Backbone:
């Protein structure tokens, strides 16, 4: 009798153990899936925040990040960085780029190279603090003096969050040559795309401090609005857009 009773009383308990193990296994599996999903969601949020805070470092290869990225082809830029010095390149980090400020040299006929060398010479002459990230010459050539990750000394109280473009001009009217203008449109579009801005974010030195700079665009408001519109058109036609609505 014992031989029969023993297996019968043992059998249900064994089944129960297997069932318990399966339930425990499933609970662990669900918990693991939950943890992985939660973690990947936070990584996702972090990437979006990172791409919004530092547009230049948007993680473009990650198709799961639905951040708008517009790229405009880089114009030819002659990079001649200034020596770090307190008068023209203080080496201070920029705190984001909210606007692009347009200037004119107020020195008719001077070249981009002369203006760049003038900024460089300030480290020795120590006369005043002035510079610009970019200078566009009479033939449309672009010289970069300061990385856009650092501030320039161009736009008074807006040096901390703007990129500056200085433009050469042939005469006292301050009107730019066609080549200078075309380079200005392209360079502005490139910078706007890089920092998720548009032509509407272009401002004049005049808008910052009331200074008559850039003279031609202060005296000819319609031409100024045309420049902003031309930058928007350039971004629209030459910029590559990538949206991922997920
Ligand atoms: Zn100016």
Residues:
């Amino acid at each position: 009798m014992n031989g029969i009773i023993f297996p019968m009383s043992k059998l249900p308990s064994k089944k129960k153990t297997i069932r318990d193990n399966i339930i425990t296994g499933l609970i662990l599996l669900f918990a693991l899936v939950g943890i992985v999903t939660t973690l990947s969601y936070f990584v996702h949020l972090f990437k979006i925040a990172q791409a919004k805070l530092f547009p230049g470092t948007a993680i473009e290869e990650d198709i799961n990040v639905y951040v708008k990225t517009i790229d405009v082809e880089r114009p030819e830029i002659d990079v001649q960085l200034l020596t770090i010095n307190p008068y023209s390149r203080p080496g201070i980090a920029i705190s984001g780029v909210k606007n692009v400020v347009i200037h004119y040299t107020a020195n008719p006929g001077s070249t981009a190279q002369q203006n760049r060398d003038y900024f460089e010479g300030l480290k020795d002459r120590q006369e005043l603090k002035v510079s610009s990230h970019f200078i566009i010459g009479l033939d449309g050539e672009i010289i970069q003096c300061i990385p856009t990750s650092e501030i320039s000394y161009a736009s008074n109280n807006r040096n901390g969050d703007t990129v500056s473009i200085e433009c050469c001009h042939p005469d006292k009217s301050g009107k730019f040559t066609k080549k200078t203008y075309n380079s200005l449109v392209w360079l502005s579009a490139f910078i706007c795309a890089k920092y998720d801005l548009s032509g509407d974010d272009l401002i004049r030195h005049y808008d910052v401090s009331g200074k008559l700079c850039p003279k031609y665009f202060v005296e000819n408001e319609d031409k100024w609005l045309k420049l902003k519109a031309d930058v928007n058109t350039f971004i629209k036609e030459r910029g590559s857009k990538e949206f991922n609505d997920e």
About this structure: The chain has a mean pLDDT of 87. The longest helix spans residues 2-53.
